[in-house]
Amino acid sequence: MELRYGFKQEFPPGMKLTKNFRSKLKEWQQLPYVRPYEPFDGRLKRSKDGLKRMEKRAVGMVHEFLSLTVEKMAEVEQVSQFRKWFGIDLNIRDLFLDHPGIFYVSSKGKRHTVFLREAYHKGRLIESNPIYEERMKLLELVAMRRRGMVVTNDRNTVRIRTRAVEAEENGEEEEEESL
């Protein structure tokens, strides 16, 4: 059977899908797609089928929103700020967790970030953007400085040296840190 209204699903390598989950996923994928830009009918909330269609509409709206961002990711709190404007009456965080093949939620630190799975391969953006590339270079330079590297800028050239080399050039002895 053709899945005209289905979303691309990419599950993590270690995730084992049960038969029950696969059947529910197939059933959900075959639901008709409720157009996100049309006025939403409130009567759908009353039936079980209507709730599933409402959920599919919400997934479609958030999928579209994330695909329009440069990095194909956003903080969950930022996305939840748009609930009212998107007409989503569901819990956004639960929506992301219920669809692990479409979204990946990172809970690193105090912030929760949602990624669009289909936009990433092995942790890197598939279709990179010049803004994204420059940001990654900047983050690499910041990470080098934290590892004891010093970045100097002489006439638009960037030189990266360790602090030991810099101390040697200045005639200073490097102090050893004791634990």
Could you give the topology of this structure?
Elements: H1 19-29, H2 48-68, E1 73-75, H3 76-80, H4 83-86, H5 92-98, E2 103-106, E3 113-116, E4 120-121, E5 124-125, H6 130-146, E6 149-154, E7 157-162, H7 163-169
Antiparallel strand pairs: 1-3, 2-3, 4-5, 6-7
What does this structure look like?
The strands form three sheets. A three-stranded antiparallel beta sheet has the order 1-3-2. A two-stranded antiparallel sheet has the order 4-5. The chain has a two-stranded antiparallel ribbon with strand order 6-7. The protein contains seven helices and seven strands. The N and C termini lie far apart (65 Å). By secondary structure, the protein is an alpha+beta fold. The longest helix is centred in the first third of the chain and has 21 residues. It is elongated, with a radius of gyration of 23 Å.
